[in-house]
Amino acid sequence: MYWGILVIAGLLEVVWAYAMKESQGFTRLLPTSIMLVSMIASFGLLALAMRHLPLGTSYMVWTGIGAIGAFIVGVWLLGESLSPMRVMAALLIIAGIVTMKAAH
């Protein structure tokens, strides 16, 4: 159950990162509002998951989901480059998350 909560927290991190980009420096109300709500929810769920999961594992998985998710959203929705080096970096982050989860 707490792993699921952690995954949702990580996905909400992707939402707030994308909303922050779309807020254009907090000048657009709706994306800024979405960012704030999803940020609070993400941190809250992370805190809940950390009650039962180790700090290092929780934080690494949370930030990893956010980093990979933001990378995918950037490429898919924002037209950011998909170079071999960026893909390799993303795969290394995924490998780190899987290894950390396996070590738990």
Largest sheet: none
- Beta-strand content: under 5%
Note the overall shape. flat
The overall number of domains is 1
Our measurement of the CA-to-CA distance between the termini, rounded to an integer number of angstroms, reads 15 Å
Overall mean pLDDT score? 95
Task: Supply the helix-strand structural class.
Answer: mainly alpha
Structure summary, number of beta strands:
0
Question: Which regions have little confidence, pLDDT < 50, spanning 5+ residues?
Answer: none
What's the oligomerization state?
single chain
Order of helices and strands: HHHH
Radius of gyration: 14 Å
Number of helices: 4
What is the helix fraction of residues, given as a range?
A: over 70%
Family: Belongs to the drug/metabolite transporter (DMT) superfamily. Small multidrug resistance (SMR) (TC 2.A.7.1) family. Gdx/SugE subfamily.
Main location: membrane
Transmembrane segments: 33-50, 59-79, 85-103
Subcellular location: Cell membrane
Task: Please describe what this structure looks like.
With 104 residues, the protein is mainly α. The protein has one domain (2-103). Helix content is 84%, strand content 0%. It has four helices and no strands. The protein has helices at 2-22, 29-50, 55-78, 84-103. It is a multi-pass membrane protein. The chain crosses the membrane at residues 33-50, 59-79, 85-103. This is Guanidinium exporter. It is found in: Cell membrane.
